[in-house]
Amino acid sequence: MSPHLRLLLLLLLLLAAAAALCRGAPPAGELRCRCPRAVSEVISPRRLARVELVAEGPHCAVPEVIATTKQGQTICLNPSAPWVKLILTRILKSSTREN
What we know:
Blueprint: H1 3-23, E1 48-54, E2 64-69, E3 74-77, H2 82-98
Antiparallel strand pairs: 1-2, 2-3
């Protein structure tokens, strides 16, 4: 195999490796939204183990509501859905009673 062909193959291999790294997971600490899509369909509160509200900020321009089911599935909820607003209101009321 000629030296030019070897160099060309090496460059193509490096280019492919760089492209794979760019498409991989973001580096730790990168600021970005955690919810690319959010659902509005009603999910029974009995199925939910945890609901997390992530306020808007430099990481994301919109607030995010991230629910974890009792089975461990993570679901992004639409914060403007009426049923999600109701759940958040109840959580906030219960947390102010505890303090």
